[in-house]
Design brief:
By secondary structure, the chain is an alpha/beta fold. It is built from 14 helices and 17 strands. It has two domains: 219 residues, Rossmann fold; 120 residues, 3-Layer(aba) Sandwich (Rossmann fold). It has a seven-stranded mixed sheet with strand order 6-5-4-7-8-11-10. The longest helix is centred in the C-terminal third of the chain and has 21 residues. The termini are far apart.
């Protein structure tokens, strides 16, 4: 396999998680009678441009189907994050009723609803029917398609160039990253700004966040790689922010490279070069910087299995919370099945009554925890553990313990934050 950005041969491994089905391919009762498609889940590092990427086995249209079950609005903390983003961008870039905001991967309208509420014209690009329909139900204009150069040229020809383009947690999801980023350079107005949010590769490696690896993520991104990709495709990075979301993310700001000498060009902020230096110091431009993740993932897997077996032998009731893609990576790599984790609760109605891919653990509504409170709840989306614990605080008062497995097995005390 060659690098999806620079086409150099890929030889340096980061991690091998065996095989797994697509992490968002939730199963119906009927699906349980049929076989699942599993793909190898291996991640490689390009030693030329340092883009980290999954080995190609699955196509995007196989992963993001019409009944894709991830709805962003289920998480209250993510909605609050989106609302803050809109407020900050509106103020920083003086957006108003004459501006146009385009969000790529608009999902169910979780972010553009706040743009619309401010009276700013907007368009969402969303390829999956289920989430696109949810956004349309909020009155948000949606183009139901995958984004790239072809669609960008169509929208620009229709007079829909953007003052602001937002891409939250989608840059890692695109197989043709060059075509995707080039589309931003074509759709932005001359003074336009694009923002990309994505989990930070440095945090993934430092904190053994291997469960953020799944087939829907084609790339795992550092600022070093993203700046190179932007520069090769008509964009220039001018700012970066660190975010707490998804276990540690970056928000990268970019503008059209052909506008850098114009009066309206955004100045390059010092934090860009500071973070690039930090990534280099951490070894992200050396092969040894990518060593050790496999061993840490194996330790996390073994600790989780040992704990679940111990609970089973002791006759304790255990439940999971959060039917998240990262949880599916963890459970499938560890080989956890319903005998060790009888069910997982999730607040998303689209997932309830279905089964986790691979493990085939049933997904129930949170009310199932009230019927027979478990003695411990394994929180699979550890990045929102505080939000989950706050929602289920009444169970903690009755003796239920909360447990997370990444970056290490942790049994939370009551009142932990």
């Amino acid at each position: 396999m060659n690098c999806r950005h620079c086409n150099a041969p890929l030889e340096l491994p980061l991690i091998d998680l065996g095989s797994a089905p697509p992490s968002n391919a939730y199963l119906s009762t009927e699906d349980l009678r049929a076989p699942e498609t599993w793909y190898p889940l291996r991640v490689l590092v390009c030693t030329h441009c340092w883009l980290v990427q999954t080995q190609d086995f699955a196509r995007a249209d196989e992963l993001f189907s019409a009944d894709y079950a991830y709805f962003s609005s289920v998480s209250r903390s993510w909605l609050a994050h989106a609302e803050r983003y809109v407020a900050d961008m509106t103020e920083r870039f003086a957006l108003n009723a004459t501006s146009h905001v385009v969000e790529i991967a608009a999902n169910d309208g979780y972010l553009l609803q706040y743009v619309q509420a401010r009276g700013i014209p907007c368009t969402g690009i969303e390829p999956t029917r289920s989430t696109a329909d949810a956004a349309r139900a909020k009155g948000i204009p949606i183009v139901e398609d995958f984004f790239g150069v072809h669609l960008a040229d169509q929208l620009a020809a229709d007079g829909r160039q953007a003052d602001l383009m937002a891409a939250n947690n989608v840059l890692a999801h695109v197989p043709d990253i060059n075509d995707f980023v080039s589309g931003f350079a074509r759709l932005l107005k001359p003074q336009g700004v694009a923002t990309f949010e994505f989990p930070h590769l440095l945090r993934l490696i430092q904190e053994a966040q291997f469960d953020t690896i799944y087939h829907e993520h084609f790339s795992y991104l550092s600022l070093l790689a993203v700046e190179r990709i932007c520069a090769a495709n008509g964009l220039a990075v001018f700012d970066v922010e660190r975010l707490p979301t998804h276990g540690g993310s970056l928000r990268v700001f970019a503008q059209r490279a052909d506008q850098l000498r114009q009066p309206h060009a955004q100045p390059r902020q010092p934090q860009v070069d500071a973070l690039l230096a930090e990534e280099r110091a951490a070894g992200l431009e050396r092969a040894e910087g990518y060593a050790g993740l496999q061993a840490r993932a194996d330790q996390i897997k073994n600790d989780l299995l040992s704990w679940l077996i111990e609970q089973q032998r002791a006759g304790r009731r255990i439940a999971g919370y959060g039917a998240a893609a990262k949880g599916n990576t963890l459970l499938n790599y560890a080989g956890v099945r319903p005998d060790l984790l009888p069910f997982v609760c999730d607040a998303a109605p689209s997932k309830q009554g279905h089964y986790l891919p691979g493990s085939r653990i049933p997904i129930r509504p949170p009310s199932a925890l009230e019927e027979e409170p478990p003695e411990a709840i394994l929180i699979l989306p550890w990045n929102i553990a505080d939000e989950v614990k706050a929602q289920l605080a009444h169970l903690a008062q009755r003796g239920t313990r909360f447990v997370t497995a990444v970056p290490e097995l942790r049994i939370h005390s009551q009142g932990d934050r």
